[in-house]
Amino acid sequence: MAALTPASVEPDELPRASGRQLRTVLLLLIPGLLWLGVFFVVPIFTLAGTSTQTPSGSGLPGEFVQTFHLANYWDAISAYRGHFARSFFYSILATLLCLAIGYPLAYLIAFRAGRLRNLLLVLVVAPFFTSFVLRTLAWRQILADDGWVVSALKWLHLIPSDLAVTASPIAVVAGITYNFLPFMVLPLYSSLERIDPRLIEAGGDLYGTSFTVLRKVTFPLSMPGVVAGTLLTFIPASGDYVNAALLGNTRTTMIGNVVESRFFRVVDYPTAAALSFILMAIILVLVILYVRRAGTEELV
């Protein structure tokens, strides 16, 4: 009997979903679609409408009218381009640090941890059991000028004796790196754990050194995890404002701090909405360019 291949199956012989099955699928999709509609689509359109409003002229704070004033976007970019540049610089630097720290850790858990693998995974996600704000505040104590970390670094002459680490860009980047490190480690571990060990052994059998096998075999095969981890780290880090507010100063303000201030303190809703849309647009463009450049469609 000849084997029945997919190419030999006639279109009329392919299974078709019944009307009952289609109704079941639609019913299962309704909760998710409603959630996206209420908590994503509606807020996006509301934010878009707010971004083109202007003051009503009544003199009351928070009173705006819809005038489709698109110049709000140009005014926001002109006034806060430095904050955008600082935000992306901090987020890119923190993402690279997360990758440099997270890849060896994920590699250790995936290939060398043995029976300690589950324990190490629990330790990676353990910080999530503590409030984000409390974790960030803890770094103010860790990086305090009279703390043991800074004192030890100064004693070893690794940093200048008059350097203040708290309320500085160093503290902000350190806080972002720490808080978003699990978002890098977990995708990397998932990608590394799926690699067939025989491929790595084959690299060694072909007289490749450990570093060569890592560079030529392991790292390319783990690229989906690298891309996922960098995106999961970079995107929320770009809009973060907690670390800059608690660990920085007026010269380390990120765009998230400006949006928060414009929304809740200045009550300038159009500018805050325009800044939010500009941030989303820039991140979307960067993500598309990055994914296309990484070529992950050839790796998955």
From TrEMBL:
Keyword NAD included in the entry's annotation: no
- Can you supply one Gene Ontology CC term for this chain's record? plasma membrane
Question: Where in or outside the cell is it found?
Answer: Cell membrane
Query: One matching Pfam family, short form?
Result: BPD_transp_1
How is the protein disposed in the membrane?
Multi-pass membrane protein
Q: Locate the transmembrane regions by residue number.
A: 25-48, 88-108, 120-143, 163-189, 217-237, 272-291
Domain ABC transmembrane type-1, residue spans = 84-290
GO BP annotations of the record are: transmembrane transport
Keyword annotations from UniProtKB, A to Z: Cell membrane, Membrane, Transmembrane, Transmembrane helix, Transport
Q: Which domain of life is it from?
A: Bacteria
Family according to the record: Belongs to the binding-protein-dependent transport system permease family. CysTW subfamily.
Name of this chain's protein: ABC transporter permease
The species this protein was found in: Kineosporia babensis
